Amino acid sequence: MHRKRWYVTAFLATFLVATSFGSPVSAHPGHPAAGQGDDDFFGGHQHGGIGGHLPPVQENVDLLSKLKLTNAADDVSDVSALQAPNGKWYAYVGDWGAKCASGGVNVVDISDPTSPEKVRFINSSGSGYITEGVQALHIDTTAYTGDILVLSNEWCRTMPSAKQMPGGITIWDINDPTAPKLLVEAFGDFDLYGNRANESHSVIAWDAGDGDAYAAAIDNEEILDVDIFEITDPRNPELIAETDLPGVNVNAYGSEKTSHDYDVLQFPDGSWHLMVSDWDAGWIDVDVTDAENPAIVGDHDYDPCDALIPTACPPEGNAHQGEWNGDGSLFLGTDEDSSPFRLPITIQDGPLAGEVFAAGEFGWTKQVASFPDGKVNGPMVFGGYGCPGSTVPNPSVLGPLGADEEAIIVFERGPVNDPNNPGEACFFSDKVRSGEDAGYDVVIVANHHTGAQGGALPDAFLCGGQGSPVLGTAAGLCVGHRFMHEVFGRTPDYTLPYPVGDPGDLEPNAGDLGPRMEAASEFDGWGCVRLLDGASLDEIDEYCLPEELSLDFVSGFGDLTVHEVEVPRGDPNEGAPTADDDSGLAYFSWYSGGFRVAEFDDTGIHEVGAFIDQGGNDFWGVALAEDPNGDRIVLASDRDFGLYIFRYTG
Q1: What are the tens digits of pLDDT across the range 355-407?
Q2: pLDDT at residue 27 in the model
Q3: Edge to edge, what strands does the sheet with 61-68 contain?
Q4: Max Cα–Cα distance, the chain, nearest Å
Q5: Please, are residues 89 and 80 in contact by the beta-carbon 8 Å criterion?
Q6: Separation CA 623–CA 578 (nearest Å)
Q7: What is the pLDDT of residue 18?
Q8: What percent of the chain has pLDDT over 90?
Q9: 283-287 and 272-279 strand pairing
Q10: Does pLDDT of 519 surpass 60?
Q11: CA distances from 104 to 95, 185, 202, 362 (A)
């Protein structure tokens, strides 16, 4: 069950010399690579031509139909589906508000999968939008019987009323999908703000089968970032537990521990398990049979080096999402790594000269590898939070630059839980744009106190996604919170909440100058799929697209990382039993890599189907449904277009 390291190392050395199109790469010796293409994330697609995406491909996959739901890039998010009491199937496709203040859910009648029809749009409140948390399911509890749509809420700009900035979870009655009824809106953890719930990026719900139902949601704004709700009465949910999953091993590059998505499954022994995708901590198996007292029963650890990128030590990590098979004996996890490089920062002068700080690169900014000398270097200045409307120091404060130097500004992630800066947090992309507009060549975003887990992970960093336009003129790097303190001559502090008044000037001030630094790209590939033993959570195999491992595809082909996986396992919410239930099939949304199908068992994983449309794709979510004959169909949400409906024919 362990990979033979000599095989993958030798293969990679050969592969980087001559890349060809063919089948995906597996780390398991039983699945040698031949080569074939995939994938994208934050960029323009469906635009024609070859630039910006991979060539079209169609293998063992029929495209039944597609329905345009947006005219804006990066606008569509996740997808779910459910058969309504009227016998028709409906898809629920999230809109995450690329246009801001227009987020919500598209309701699409897919009862004829060759001719889908949009029948309703469910608006989010104010500036709210919907991302990973879109789930339609049936529950039968002591307080409610029927179909519900469970959503997680984030928002894109500060509004006059807290009600216009929804956080937490929202639940709709969808017994009539054309006329949904609101059951509860923006309910969650109110600890920080009182009048509004903390934002939530994803949620999953389940009927526990004993008259009770529950949901688990990400808490974007607190260290206790796994919130568990009882939703037995979905009109009156209750927060019953919150945890940061203490004591698990965080051993991937970046050291960022943050829950990101979930799977839930009842095991053959009757116990209920919640698998938490905990980013650089890997996947954490949590027993939620007693949902008020969740207990960690398994902890996945990344190997010391990546099997397919042997120079990536440790692996990039970024455990994003995943699903068990039907009996919990196997688990497929997706790593979302939107940049093919890591960018360790070396300090060039001053008291810290020679010290190296681990850092990464945003996948949607100008690549450091594209600079004339393949690196960035120069003096830096601190700029505060860098949110829209804030004052940003002029690059002239850095003094004269050398011929090969860049002007560098450092912003802090947030603000979150900082009473000295009561304004709301802004996107990473807002900060990058602030630096670009001011004329900087490099923008570094340092983690905040929450991201540093209150000091438990001082060097943890997160190169998050793009939520607003950037100019593309500056490189974007992310780094831990300790860096922000030490390079500007401060003693590191991680107090939560931030100390009122910043006693002793713990945080640097906007305009403070730092030393010179240098950062050069180190190739570490894109995000791939890991097959784990369901009991031990040991890694059995790794599955990548060959382009993800090639320097020839580091730019110009979209975001070559996997995003989500769906495993058929007899879930009644996904239709009647079908031929692929527990058959060892998995369906993937792979951003610009398109739609992928793979077979897996306890020996490994290999691709058996693929689709990329003419003009490319940018697939975010994947969901299962059935056609009028009761046969399996698969839905995928394209961020720049809308809904695709497939049938696997292999």
Answers
A1: 999 999 999 999 999 999 999 999 999 999 999 999 999 999 999 999 999 99
A2: 58
A3: 61-68, 642-648, 632-638, 619-626
A4: 72
A5: no
A6: 15
A7: 31
A8: 86
A9: antiparallel
A10: yes
A11: 5, 13, 14, 27
SS (H, E, C) 210-251: CCCEEEEEECCCCCCCEEEEECCCCCCCEEEEEECCCCCCCC
Backbone torsion region of residue 235, taken as left when φ is above 0, otherwise alpha when ψ lies between -120 and 50, otherwise beta? alpha
Nearest residue to 529 (alpha-carbon basis) of 456, 637, 604, 633? 604
Q: Phi first, then psi: what are they for 278, rounded to 5°? A: -110, 35
Give yes or no for residue 173 having a pLDDT over 70. Answer: yes
Using CA atoms, how far apart are residues 279 and 264, in angstroms rounded to an integer? 17
Question: For 201-229, what is the mean pLDDT?
Answer: 97
Tokens 């568990």 -> residue: 228
With beta carbons less than 8 A apart as the criterion, state whether 317 and 252 touch.
yes
Look up residue 345 and give its two tokens: 């920062």
Would you state the structure tokens that stand for residue 97, as one six-digit string?
A: 């508000």
User: What's residue 25's pLDDT?
Assistant: 67
Q: Indicate the residue type of 68.
A: K
Q: Judge residue 337's burial from the number of C-beta atoms within 10 Å of its C-beta, 0-12 exposed, 13-18 middle, 19 or more buried.
A: buried
Q: How far apart are CA 331 and CA 336, in angstroms?
A: 16
Q: How far apart are CA 299 and CA 331, in angstroms?
A: 13
Q: Is 110's pLDDT higher than 90?
A: yes
Query: What integer is the mean pLDDT of 109-130?
Result: 97
Q: How many residues are listed for the chain in this entry?
A: 650
Q: What residues have CB less than 8 Å from 357, skipping those under 6 apart?
A: 344, 345, 347, 459, 479, 480, 482, 483
Residue 332 to residue 6: CA distance in whole angstroms: 24
Mean pLDDT of 49-67: 87
